[in-house]
Amino acid sequence: MNQLIEDLEDLFDNAPCGYVSTGPGGHIIMANRIFADWLGRARSDIIGRRFQDFLNIAGKMYYETHFAPLMRMQGFFHEVALDLVRADGSKLPVLVNAVERRDEKGALSFVRITIFNASDRRRYERELLEARRCAEKANAELQNLNRTLEERIAEAVEARMKSEAALRQAQKMEAVGQLTGGIAHDFNNMLAVVFSALNLLERRLAKGEDVSHFIAAAKDGAGRAAALTQRLLAFSRQQALAPEPICANQMVAGMSDLLHHTLGEMVRLETVLAEDLWQVLADKNVLENVVLNLAINARDAMPHGGRLVIETANSHLDEAYGAEHDVKPGQYVMVAVTDTGVGMSPEVMAKAFDPFFTTKEPGRGTGLGLSQVFGFVKQSEGHITVNSALGRGTSITIYLPRYSGAPEARNHSEAQMPVCGNGSETVLVVEDDEQVLTLTAQMLRDLGYHVVEARCGEEALGALSAVPAIGLLFTDVVMPDINGLRLAEAALERRPDLKILFTTGYSRDAVVHNRLLDPGVNLLQKPASLEQLAAKVRTLLDG
């Protein structure tokens, strides 16, 4: 047996051709003497390296791009001409054959490579001629591949540019959205002070000197400021929406008089309302404002008069459209507002939804109109498109998801509740803003409640222990140290029967989205009027 092994080793070493075996990882695990001699290297310098390491640059590229892939596909490679690079840098033309061997489980055990010296001129010329033919064929295929690749690269570059433009737009809208959301929160806190002070002043001076016109003017100004914060929140997609089942046809019909009055005699209003229109689940008041906003924009785009068409239809957005425009495919209700006005240039159209961008003269617009529409539509999980051309008018189309549920009746019971306390009920008010705390407490006292004030969560928990008569905790959501949610949880552990009312300058959607509150909790949004506060407190205490 030992003699047989020695004979085989001798045959292996003294064969007229080179033998190399590579393992599953492609590294040489065995090489015979003649292969080492051809390279002018010791076998120890060969073992562990890759076969292609001993080829010239062209051979190495050919090995990695053609030889190795074909080996993986077919398990063998038949006679290819390559150049070995000797240790002294000279080249040796060779012909290479290879075959792989696998174990019983199909796993690759090794690849055996056989190398023949191609110094024989005639054979070498035949191989060279064949190689040229193959090269010409490969070159033709490569040119075709290059043409196809160039086309694909051009398509990919164009698609990427569109994606990058969309991403920049989304990032810009998101950044400004966060900014406006923060502004709205702070502004709402200031408005809470104004509203509270004016309501108290109105009640205190009801039988005294006539200052009602000053109060009305101040309340009107504060109301307009509050409306501005709602527009900011709408753009930032943090507006508190009150969705309900809506038939867009009925809504448009109900707005007819308002639209005619707003548009004036120079604009002809037409409606094209689809039969059997599906319902949508949306905030009716906000949707009406959206349609009115678009109609006013259209009127301003037709200074010499024109035609305005409001159209509704049932629509289906398929998967291809959804993927292209980043909208969920499915059934939608379409509401389109089309005018015959001056239209927009591509540059203006690209900025149409940007906040504070407007083509109107100073004093005629804030640039929040279309961004507010955009925010509402996205917050309602819808889609919006703009089609326009200079001199050919503009069409803005809104798609809102179809609502398949039954119509729901609004609950008006809260407005019918009594608004005053009975003189024996105690409310704990927690607010980190000193002025808001003082005025809120005073309003509740004017409504007939005993009030305990706390400026932070720790004070509130102490008050709960000291005053057992407290029946309602009225707390701000966003506070330092202990936020409103953690305070309420701690309070309910001590007093499970305690009623909880939250308030915040942010919207319900914002605080729920940021996990500061759970959906469905009792929330009074700042700024709140005396009547709103009274109705909410009375509803909870009587519930």
From TrEMBL:
Residue numbers of 4-aspartylphosphate PTMs: D476
* Coiled coil region boundaries: 121-166
Q: Which UniProt keywords apply?
A: Coiled coil, Kinase, Phosphoprotein, Transferase
What residues does the Response regulatory domain cover?
Answer: 426-541
Q: Where is the Histidine kinase domain?
A: 182-404
Pfam families, alphabetized: HATPase_c, PAS_9, Response_reg
Per the UniProt entry, the Enzyme Commission number(s) are 2.7.13.3
Does the record bear Isomerase in its keywords? no
Output the InterPro entries linked to this UniProt entry: CheY-like_superfamily, HATPase_C_sf, HATPase_dom, His_kinase_dom, HisK_dim/P_dom, HisK_dim/P_sf, PAS, PAS-assoc_C
The record's PROSITE patterns line, in alphabetical order, gives: HIS_KIN, PAC, RESPONSE_REGULATORY
Query: What is the name attached to this protein's record?
Result: histidine kinase
The record lists the organism as Paramesorhizobium deserti
- Upper classification of the organism: Bacteria, Pseudomonadati, Pseudomonadota, Alphaproteobacteria, Hyphomicrobiales
